[in-house]
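Researcher: I'd like a candidate sequence for this fold, 274 residues long. If you have to choose between options at a position, lean toward the conservative one.
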């Protein structure tokens, strides 16, 4: 029997990815995945379609989300799996987060205009269409207009933290995100812990109710994986695996297929869902 693999961290055009749900599912099937998870930033807009498409194509879709949070000036991303994405409480909270994104993008565009980057907020919104507005849409527009040569240059020179047009955005705290996910029957997992650069916060996250770590991730080297594997075993936590693929127009390559988690990860995750 052939091995079964999962990728539990994927983004679509509903947030800052460039694959539509249909393209994402198609690629997952081509790569031989048994199960995947759509985990868009602060939105569940792709989940209904994604679940239906996955079923049609004979693979499993885990309904997920990635919530961007902040604690002590540290950005902490919380993944939520098996969430009830139709829950009214969740939907209302996500609407408020999207309004915060909207206001932030307006302010970033204004700052860019002040430093000579002539882009218009309406053009950014049109580019995003129905997706949750984010800085990647600004970066894409800057690339199309020739203000930067690479998508990443927009972040490095203009809209990243510490750059001329950077604007902070209102975020949930990690504790709030964990409670929100648990409140809609989901399992909260810490995304790409190495990017947090604060392993000292891991005990605090456990105290707040985190149930696992994304041990296998594209940005984790062998040493990171070994360290986080030991941590989850010592603390009896779940582990997950995800590529964090954003599609062909984001970052430098298509990451789907780089991480292939064993199916046992999904089985343990299912046993933890409420």
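Model: Candidate sequence:
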């Amino acid at each position: 029997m052939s091995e079964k693999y999962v990728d539990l961290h994927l983004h679509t055009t509903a947030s800052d990815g460039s694959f539509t749900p249909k393209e994402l599912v198609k690629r997952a099937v081509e790569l031989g995945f048994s199960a995947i998870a759509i985990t868009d930033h602060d939105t569940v807009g792709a989940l209904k379609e994604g679940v239906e498409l996955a079923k049609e194509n004979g693979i499993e879709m885990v309904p997920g989300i990635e919530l961007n949070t902040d604690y002590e000036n540290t950005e902490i991303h919380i993944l939520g799996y098996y969430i009830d994405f139709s829950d009214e409480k969740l939907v209302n909270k996500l609407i408020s987060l999207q309004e915060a994104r909207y206001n932030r993008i307006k302010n970033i565009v204004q700052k860019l205009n002040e430093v000579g980057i002539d882009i218009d907020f309406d053009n950014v919104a049109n580019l995003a269409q129905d997706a949750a507005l984010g800085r990647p849409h600004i970066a894409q527009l800057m690339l199309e207009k020739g203000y930067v040569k690479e998508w990443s240059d927009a972040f490095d020179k203009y809209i990243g933290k510490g750059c001329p047009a950077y604007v902070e955005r209102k975020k949930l705290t990690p504790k709030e995100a964990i409670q929100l996910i648990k409140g809609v029957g989901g399992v909260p997992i810490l995304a790409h812990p190495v990017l947090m650069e604060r392993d000292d916060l891991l005990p605090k996250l456990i105290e707040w109710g985190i149930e696992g770590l994304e041990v296998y991730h594209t940005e984790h080297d062998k040493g990171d994986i070994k360290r986080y594997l030991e941590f989850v075993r010592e603390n009896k936590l779940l582990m997950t695996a995800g590529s964090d693929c954003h599609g062909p127009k984001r970052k430098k390559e298509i990451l789907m297929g780089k991480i292939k988690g064993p199916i046992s990860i999904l089985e343990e995750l299912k046993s933890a869902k409420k």
